[in-house]
Each structure stands twice: as structure tokens, then as C-alpha cells.
Amino acid sequence: MASTVPPTPTPGPANATMPMAEASSSSSSSVPLSPTKEIPVFEFTKRKRWADLLVTELNDTIILVLSETCQVWYCGNAVTELLGWRDEELVDTDLVDLMHASDRGNFRNAFAESVRGRTDMLAYARLQCKNEFYVSADYTSAPREVLFEIRGRPHYLPDSGDFKCYFAMAQPYPSRNTAMLNTFLELKMENERLQQRVAQLRVQSQALDGAANNFFATSDNFGGPALDSSRTNFELGVGSSLVPDADDDGPRKKLKRAAAEQHVCVTCGRTDSPEWRKGPMGPKTLCNACGLRWAKKARKNGDGDGEGDGAQNSGSSIVF
């Protein structure tokens, strides 16, 4: 009897995708994940001449290299911005000479103790600013002083232990901003003082101008009514003030004050004749010239009274 073999089932599309999915999942789980790439941190010390750059860019700290006797061997550029000195002006000079007189003794003791004991030093001293750096217009005033905090440490050779140099740093105390604030306040006070001085000078100038105007106004009126009144008083009082000196034993005679009368010549109308003579209308009616002519004419006519009266009145008719 023949046996029948069952037909082999043909795999469908669903059965075909299952092994591929399982293969992909197994392959993905077997591949390890790559680690995250970290950004390298740049180190400042890897820069070329990083130490020189660090020293140069410090603008609020003065770097100092000192000798065993506190002589300046090196000075940073920050000294120009903080104190006004150039670094070459301080090299080979004594740092103590730049300090206030009352701070020099304490600093020398602290410096010597640090060198002798090979320990760190912390000192405070007032350093003098350059004169024109403080007040550019006043070179006679004392230089301004700024309080600094100075930290230092001696350096010795590792082999022999001999003293090599002394490294120090000086910073304005308590901070640079406070030092700048103090400078601002000082400039503000100086500005206020100058403004007060300008106001005083302005008031004095106005007072002088007023006095000058009054003087010129008075000089313009000089010779006006005041002079006329003084002239009138002189004319009125000259007759009574003139007293002739007689003998020592004899009495003094006073001249009678001539009356201030107005005379007009009836012939020519003149009013300023030095003498007034008798005319046909009475005494003092003719001027000197007209009176002489009238008297001459009267003498010719035989009338001699005119000339005599004229001569008699000539002495008492003078008007000043």
C-alpha cells in the first residue's frame, strides 16, 4: 500500500519577516554604543609665555622683586596706573623711600623678620603718588598717598639655601574701587572749593564795577550845579573875606561888601563892563567906554560934574 507524504507548507510573507526582525534586534543589541566626545578644556598655562602675560595683564596689583635690602629690582606696569610712576623710575631705588615717613620703620621690621625667618610677610604702608599724577596744575603741593596691602615671601636657592630675591605684591587697600572713590571725593571737594572761590571773586568784581560806575557818574556832574554854587558863594563872600593887614598897633579896617547888582548900559546895552560911570540918567548907567565918551562931551560943553562923579564912583563900582 502506498503511503502518501503530506505537502510541505510554503512560508508566507509574515513568516519571512519574523526571522529578519529577530536578526536585526539581535545585531543591534550586540553592537556597543560609542562614548560621548568631551570638549577639551584649554589650560592657560599651555600658552606660550603665560607667566609674562599674567604679570603684564595685572593692572590692579603691583608686582615687585626686591633685594635683601629692599631695593627694587623689578616693578610691574600697574604702578603707572595706580601711582603715576613709570617702572624705570623706581628700579634701583629703595622701596621704603616711596612710603610715608611714619610707615617706614614698621615695614622695615616686617621685611627683615620675613627674610630672617623665611616666612610670609603681610604689611600695610602708604605709598606716594607722583605729584603731577595727583594734581597736574599744582606742582608745589605734597604728593597724595594711597594705602597699600603688601604681601611678600623670600626666595632661596634650593641647593645652597642662599637668598635669591624677594617677591612681593602690592594692592590698594581695601580695594582699588575704594581708592578710586576716595580720589573722586577729593576731586569733588576741590571742585567745590574752587566754585566757592569763583563766587567770591564774582561778588568782588561786581562791587568794583558798581564803585567805578558811581565814580564816573560823579565825574560827569563835576563842574555842574555844585561848581556853580561854589562859584556863587565865592563871589558873595570874597568882599567880606578880604581883610587888609594894617599896622600891628592900628585897628583893622573891613571893606564893605559890594552889593551884587545888575547894571546895564543905557547906550550900548552892555552888562559886563569892569566899571560903571555916571550918565545923563544917573550914576552907574553907562559902561566904562560910553561913560568916558559922555564925560568928554560934557566937559566940552562946560559941565565938569560928569567926570568928577565918574572918578568918584569908579572905586566903589567894582563887581567881582
Q: Characteristics of this structure?
A:
320 residues; zinc; Erythroid Transcription Factor GATA-1, Chain A; 5-stranded antiparallel beta sheet; alpha+beta
What do you see in this structure?
The protein is α+β, with helices and mostly antiparallel strands and 320 residues long. The chain is built from 10 helices and 7 strands. It has a 5-stranded antiparallel sheet with strand order 2-1-5-4-3. Strands 6-7 form a two-stranded antiparallel ribbon. InterPro entries: GATA_TF, PAS, PAS-like_dom_sf, PAS_fold_3, Znf_GATA, Znf_NHR/GATA. It holds the Pfam family PAS_3. One of its GO terms (molecular function) is zinc ion binding. Residues 1-12 have a biased composition (Pro residues).
Helix-strand string: HHEEHHHEHEEHHEEHH
The name of the CATH superfamily of the domain at 45-173 reads PAS domain
Helix/strand-derived category reads alpha+beta
Poorly predicted segments: 12-21, 135-140, 238-248, 254-258, 310-320
Largest sheet: 5 strands, antiparallel
Second rung of CATH, namely the architecture of the domain at 45-173: 2-Layer Sandwich
| Proportion of residues in β-strands | 15-25%
Number of DSSP helical runs: 10
Write the CATH fold name of the domain at 45-173. Answer: Beta-Lactamase
Give the CA-based shape: rod-shaped
Q: Mean pLDDT score, rounded?
A: 73
Radius of gyration from the alpha-carbon trace, in angstroms: 60 Å
Task: Summarize the topology.
Layout: H1 13-30, H2 50-57, E1 62-66, E2 72-75, H3 78-83, H4 87-90, H5 101-117, E3 121-128, H6 131-134, E4 145-156, E5 163-172, H7 176-221, H8 225-241, E6 276-279, E7 282-287, H9 288-300, H10 305-314
Antiparallel strand pairs: 1-2, 1-5, 3-4, 4-5, 6-7
Helix pairs in contact: 9-10
